[in-house]
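Model: Ready when you are.
Researcher: Fold this.
Model:
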Amino acid sequence: MKRFIENYQGKEFDLIVVGGGITGATVAYEAASRGLSVALLEKSDFGSATSAATSKMIHGGLRYLATYEFGLVRESLKERRVLTNIAPNFIHPASFLISVYKKDKTPNFMMKIGMLLYEIFSFDKNRLWDKSKKMPHHKSVSSEQITKMFPNALKEGLTGGQMFYDCSSHSPERFTLAFVKSAVKHGASVANYAKVEDFITEETPKQKIIKGVRVIDEISGKKYNVNGKLVINCSGPWADLLLDKVKKKSDNQELRRSEGIHFVTKKLIDKHIFSGSTALGKHYFLVPYRNHTLIGTTDKEFVGNPDDYKVTKKAIVELLDDVNNSFGNSEKIKYEDIVYTYGGLRPLVEDQTEDVYNSSRKYEITGEKKNGIEGLITVEGGKFTTSRMLAEKAINKALKILKLPIKKSISKSNYLYSCNIDNFEEFVAQKQKQYSEFLPEQIEFLAKSYGTEIDEIFSITDKHENCKEVLNADGENLAQVQFAIRNEMAVSLSDIMLRRTGLGLLGHPGKKILESIAELAAKELNWNSEKLAKEIQIMENVFKLPE
């Protein structure tokens, strides 16, 4: 992949997609795969904001049954199956345990009814291309069984629970990138660090007609006018701010934003995902993650400019207190036990609820004709699981506006780029045998991250002895750094360590490893000593816990 913006010569695209998170990535792929000429523009790095701030799950949304959003639950469960099919290296069945205590607002018998409904809505869950991913049915578990599975779970007031299956997402960052790569495969032009500053418009007495966007290349500083017949605003928490550039001030309607944070600690649980609820009835998860535990998430309204957002110590302590008050016996999680933390903002389209936790995760696709604007669609809301379906509907609308024939979508029946694996278990076993000098679990991790591109990683280690050294327990190595820069548009240490690889997602990897990654990046990207020091310092700041 190459950043098209550096060599842009004025081409008019059928479609310009603004925002390179999961929504923009799926929309760009959907459009390109249906024959449209597409430009995808992202102001920072692909999948670097909301799409990187997830609990690493692809799920139906069990809690939406309580708000009677049956359509959203069914659509989510259908899409969970589709994503498992088209991205078998990224999406995997995962067992969840919902604990129920006397203090909880939802008693165990109601939870059983909810699980039966969930099973009904997911009646086709095992109609999978890969039969090794079969998902068992739910079952009730006793309090004694729960404490055997989770010795740290609070025993007092525990009445039982429900065990069921949803899916985990191995790497939301690389999963988002797979959609970008799939769009490129079908002819899309893409660029990260390409910020849309304004719209190109023609004005009549009654309306504004969008003719493209004004873009600044954040790397070179150069400015471009990118021409397009239609623009789709997929900028997530920034969607309303982008619209403000063309809407009348009196029409402004601020998007509602919800903060979600997570943190990673030493290993607290083993095999199953533990779901508990706080005193206010909000759910949190303890997720087994790379021999550590991932804990999240919060759902708290954020007011202000999303560019100013950052995780605060107050937000971490609030989540820590919630978890400690309902999980853990004598030994509680301490702030010092946290090795890494991250957060992001979710865009919400519903403003009828006082608490954003109860706001719907539905999505909206709206033309801006009502605001006197032609040539612009805005996509708002939604969640990771339903992003592909959202994209399909958005492009159906785009084709109607462009007066083009509705060409059938292929995105649910074709593997994503580098994901064409019929049986993932067999694929991993084959690669473990092929690369037997590495530990089996390390090959499995890399197979999940790269799919069929795993051979390209090991071809680099074969050519460059210095790239062969294993940098962490998951088997990650310097070959991935070179691959990220040469093939995946990585231009900074944070791109490499937080989104192209998992080298920074368990906290600070150690001074020696950080420097070896940075030195290779400097060589590949022609950084001088000042730029190298700056990139290292940026990562050092990322790894610091908020004070």
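Researcher: Now this one.
Model:
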Amino acid sequence: MTQTYINGEHIYYAFLAGTNEVVKAREFLNRINVFPVFDSDTGNNLAHTFNYIVDTVKPQKFLGGTLRDLADASLSGARGNSGIILAQFINGLAREIGEERQLTPEVFAEKITRAVPHAYRAVSQPVEGTILTVLREWAVALKKAGEETEDLIKMFFNSLEEARSSLKETPNKLKVLKDAMVVDAGAQGFVFFLEGIARLLETGNVKELLKQKSPEIVMQESLETISGDIDFRYCSEALVKGEQLDHEELRNDLKKFGDSVIIAGTEEKAKIHLHTNRPDEFFFHLMKYGKILQQKVDDMQRQYQVVNERKYDIALVTDSIADLPQEFIDKYQIHLVPINLELEGSTFLDKVSIKPDQIYSILDEVKEYPTSSQPPLKTVEKLLAFLCDHYKSVIMISVSKELSGTWNVFNNAARPLQEKGKKISVINSKLNSGAQGLLVQKAAQLIDEGKNHEEIKEKLEALIPGTRIFVSVATFKYMVRGGRVSPMKGLLAKVLNLKPIVSLDEEGRGIAFAKAFTRRSNTKKIVSIVKEIVDKKPVGSYCIVHAGARGKALSYKEIFTGIIGKEPEYLVEISPIVALSAGLGAVAISLMTGDEK
């Protein structure tokens, strides 16, 4: 029986069938991914994009309504170049179909061809031999078939053959594909999607489709990557909500931050993709266009190293509260999980999409004081699945669980993998900032020395009680605004000109360790505390961190080098989230005893 119309339910079930095929082919798509960069994640990105769409949208008979829902979900769920291009195509199709309740196959095919230019406009520099080519040539073939037959199945299968032929030609249109002897991964993913729809049209068995359980998406990267030539390190994506967003203006404006600019969406909501070395500048700049509802930043360089240039058998993971120099993090291939920072309706990734100087510049201007939240469980699950696929074991060091829910997130993400036999240790540092950084530094050095997993875990747990931090807070103002100190106590402290010294107790809870009435006497008290520690136990290592107070930090360096007898391991700015409570002008010294060098 020939199907004479297409409605919303037909489209939804077509998406569901196509999604199942893409998810099944995820690892294969990762392996053939060489364009625009060799980051082996096209399968992951397409699987995530389509899976998010079908999980979010509910089928309805109204064609226009279903497509609007699919389009909106595609913006939230889109990941990677191909995912965002497809999201723009779906949004273009929704716009072309408008309020139609149902359409004949021929008219529907016409609407599809009119949606293709929307996909092309998403890309700053469209490249042929990619998903764009196959999408365009498939749409042309579908329209032509619709003019020749009223049989939807025949019409679709004729266009599918053209899509397959177009896919085979992608290496002849793009040299990087020819050199690698592969077809374009995004285009292949789209053909898999069409093949899933073809199977549904052939069988017509929606009940069987609904019974099928999509294969679980475990988002580890593929086992092989062809090249490490990455000009822009961070694959960055944002979902922005604004008013009258001009995609062309956005595209031209963002080129200065990197390449691979792709924008999908509407005038009210846009999904933006960019490869950049400056994700913090990119995201901070985006705030002028509206609220940033979502952010994602993948370190393509670290991903490549894990797959191809892995230094160790043990992966080391920590959160962004641990203050360490970036050079050290890169040298030892440490994996950093950013804490979320909420700033005036936009969500940022601590140390990744926002840096200390940016948070200092607006702390006194914002109406609502920024807040923080633990990293999403799914983010940590994805990272651990990836690491367990490439390392023999994983050591995770979290900020004190008395200060953040991050330890619980780490633990919950690790548990299912531990139950499957993966060796993962989650360590509650009972520390933060520079003190946590010293513990992570020690873990990295022990891994580098070739110590085994259990030896490292045992050593770290032994060092935690002897690792301390003492923070000289310049003003209570930021603690009051952040809700850590009551306004009454803050006012009293201001009147008395109190300069507190903040530390952590044995369980990792924040405590007011001492107080002074001038910055000078505050420093004298910290010097006295450190001298007392040095007299009892040798200091194995120490560091100095600060919040926009480099001059004061350098003064600390000079003072404590004389007292301890050696220079600090490092001197760095604290993370933006630590800065929210410590406040501008804070300086801290962290010391590790019980680890004589």
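Researcher: Key takeaway?
Model: Confidence is low (pLDDT under 50) at residues 213-227, 485-497.
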